[in-house]
Structure formats: structure tokens, C-alpha cells
Write a structure and sequence with these properties.
Blueprint (H helix, E strand, L loop, with lengths): L11 H8 L3 H8 L9 H13 L5 H7 L5 E6 L5 H16 L3 E6 L4 H13 L4 E4 L8 H8 L3 E4 L8 E4 L1 H14 L5 E5 L5 H17 L8 E3 L4 H12 L9 E4 L2 H13 L9 E6 L12 E4 L2 H13 L7 E4 L2 E3 L11
Parallel strand pairs: 1-2, 1-3, 3-4, 4-5, 5-11, 6-7, 6-8, 8-9, 9-10
Antiparallel strand pairs: 10-12
Helix pairs in contact: 1-2, 1-3, 2-3, 5-12, 8-9, 10-11
């Protein structure tokens, strides 16, 4: 069969006629929103459509149904490995459900966040997924008030539908691991105090300390940003005390912070994994590839992404928060035995 001439517009009616089927049968065979039909007729229609150069106008058909099959995703920044990985998983999960995901970045400023959200809403997205929520953030409340379909991911305000890791369990696992290795002088560098993830991971660390009967030194509990430079600054404060006592172990509330602490330890001639035990969080791909592989708490990003998309496309009657369970991955940075 000859393909359509250059510039010609092949319609669904053309495909149906060339396939010898009804218009409705051709439409069902080419509908990408549900499971792909494997029937001989459907495969024949798809083969003819490809030969003719037919391109389904999913945007127009979605508009006729009052939807765009597009979701907006708002992240603080894509230079953050976790946020980039999270968006990739959200994009994949959206595609599996017949949706397209587009991303916008906002930094950590609430005004920038609101502007970015409005930009996505101006594109007529069917819902918003926010990885930017602050505990003091007004945006989720405004979205609820306006009736905008949305879900929070990785962070929660405790009210809007949310798909998150269980940060308190993760913080507990990290510090419990260090305690089980015999450490008693443990520092914790948490994420920002305006994030539920930072607050939750610190709460889990405190629970582990309480179980062990340990009252951590206040100057060893540092709230920082989630960047490498934040970890380096915290590492300098913890490890550069001269004759003062320094911690023998550190729980860093994400892997970027841990990388900064590694850099600070190197500056002071401290060997991570021998003189200093270190546990990170999120188990980003680089963690296992460092010269001293980093112990880290693994978060099931794919599961969280799928849950977030489902909260958008199949919203329940009541807002709810779904937590996915993290897992500790011990490696050499905490003094765990080298794996074969």
C-alpha cells in the first residue's frame, strides 16, 4: 500500500475504509488509553494505519471529552538527582496509564512555586503533582479551595492526597543501623525544617536514640538544605572542631548531603568507613559507585510515582496519604562488611 502523499492528512475514516472495518472498530483499535487489543482485526487496522502514515490527534479527542490526558509535575529543581529520578518515574507511570507528564521547576520560593503551578494550569493539565510542598506552604490549600485535582509526592502537608516514603521509618532504620554497629556519638544532618521529609527523618532518628537511651548533642542535630554544599558546610561544622569531640557516625538525610560530608571529611583527613561511619538517604545510583560505597536508605520511587498518578486519575472521595516503605542498604561507608 502506498503511503499518503506528502502533506496529505490521513483521517480515521481513511484508515477504516482501507482496513475494511467500521469507523468505530478502527477507533477502538487505535485508542491508546486502555489495554492494547491483540485481536487479528485490531492488529490489521494498526498495520494499515502505519502504512498510511495515520497520526491520531489525541489532543483533539481528549478535548472533546473535556480532558487533555496531560499532567503537570512541579519540582524544586531537576539538578537534584532525586527530583530528576522522581520525574522520570512519574513520566513512566503516567505513560503507562495513557497520560503525558510535563515538568516545571520552582526552586524553594513559595511565590515562584505558585507562578509555576499557574503556568502548568494555563496549559489545561488534568491535574498537578507537586514535589515542592512545604509545611508552611499555602499552595496545596489554595488548590483544594479551587477544586484543582492534585497530589503531593515525596513531601506532604498532611492534608492533600500524598504519595510519600515513610520518612520516619527511614530515619529510624538509618540511626538504628549505626547504633547496632556500636556507635553512640552520632550526628544527624536533616533536610530543611520546612519539609515533611526532613521532619520525618529526624523524628525517626530521635526514636532510635530514645530506644537506645541516648540523648544526642544538640549541636550534632543540624537542619540543612538538600544540596551537596549544605552537606559540606554541615560536615565542616561537625568534623572541624579541633580538639573538641567529634561524632564517630553521621546520618545524612539525603545522599547529596552525604556527598558533602564525604568532601568535608576528606578535607580534614578523616577516612569515611573507618574513622567515620556515614549513612545517606534515597540510594541514588551514584551511591554504590563511590570509592567507598555509601550506605543509604532506599526509597521505592517507582511505587511512589505510580501511587501519585493513581491519586490523580482515580481520586477517592476523601484525601488520603499513602506511604511506601523504605529499605536500608548497608555498604562500606558505615563500616558494613564488603559484599562479594
Amino acid at each position: 500500500m502506498e503511503p499518503a502523499a506528502s502533506g496529505a492528512s490521513v483521517t480515521l475514516r481513511d484508515v477504516a475504509a482501507a482496513s475494511g472495518v467500521s469507523l468505530s472498530t478502527a477507533s477502538r483499535a487505535l485508542d491508546e488509553r486502555g489495554p492494547v487489543s491483540r485481536s487479528a482485526a485490531a492488529q490489521h487496522v494498526r498495520k494499515i494505519a502505519e502504512e498510511l502514515g495515520y497520526r491520531r490527534n489525541s489532543f483533539a479527542s481528549s478535548l472533546r471529552r473535556g480532558e487533555t490526558r496531560t499532567l503537570g509535575v512541579l519540582v524544586p529543581r531537576l539538578s537534584d538527582t532525586v527530583m530528576a529520578l522522581m520525574f522520570e518515574e512519574l513520566e513512566r507511570a503516567a505513560s503507562d496509564r495513557g497520560y503525558f507528564a510535563m515538568v516545571a521547576t520552582s526552586g524553594d520560593d513559595p511565590e515562584d512555586e505558585r507562578r509555576a503551578a499557574e503556568t502548568l494550569l494555563d496549559r489545561n493539565v488534568d491535574g498537578l503533582i507537586l514535589a515542592t510542598a512545604r509545611l508552611d506552604d499555602d499552595l496545596p490549600r489554595l488548590l483544594r479551595k479551587r477544586g484543582v485535582t492534585h497530589a503531593l509526592v515525596l513531601r506532604t502537608d498532611g492534608v492533600s492526597p500524598s504519595a510519600i516514603g515513610d520518612d520516619e521509618v527511614g530515619g529510624y532504620l538509618a540511626v538504628r543501623h549505626l547504633l547496632d554497629l556500636g556507635h553512640r556519638h552520632i550526628a544527624v544532618v536533616t533536610g530543611p525544617s520546612f519539609t515533611s521529609s526532613g521532619v520525618g527523618r529526624l523524628a525517626g532518628a530521635r526514636r532510635a536514640f530514645d530506644e537506645a537511651g541516648i540523648n544526642p548533642r544538640q549541636e550534632w542535630l543540624i537542619a540543612a538544605g538538600y544540596g551537596i554544599e549544605n552537606g559540606f558546610t554541615a560536615g565542616e561544622a561537625l568534623l572541624g572542631g579541633g580538639s573538641g569531640k567529634r561524632p564517630t557516625a553521621v546520618f545524612a538525610a539525603n545522599d547529596n548531603i552525604a556527598l558533602g560530608i564525604i568532601a568535608a571529611a576528606h578535607r580534614f583527613g578523616i577516612t569515611v568507613g573507618k574513622e567515620l561511619a556515614l549513612v545517606g538517604y534515597n540510594d541514588t545510583p551514584l551511591s554504590a559507585r563511590l570509592s567507598t560505597p555509601l550506605s543509604s536508605v532506599r526509597v521505592p520511587l517507582a511505587q511512589i510515582a505510580g501511587t501519585a498518578i493513581d491519586l490523580i486519575v482515580n481520586p477517592g472521595k476523601e484525601p488520603h496519604i499513602r506511604k511506601s516503605m523504605p529499605t536500608l542498604i548497608p555498604r562500606e561507608s558505615s563500616g558494613a562488611p564488603r559484599r562479594a
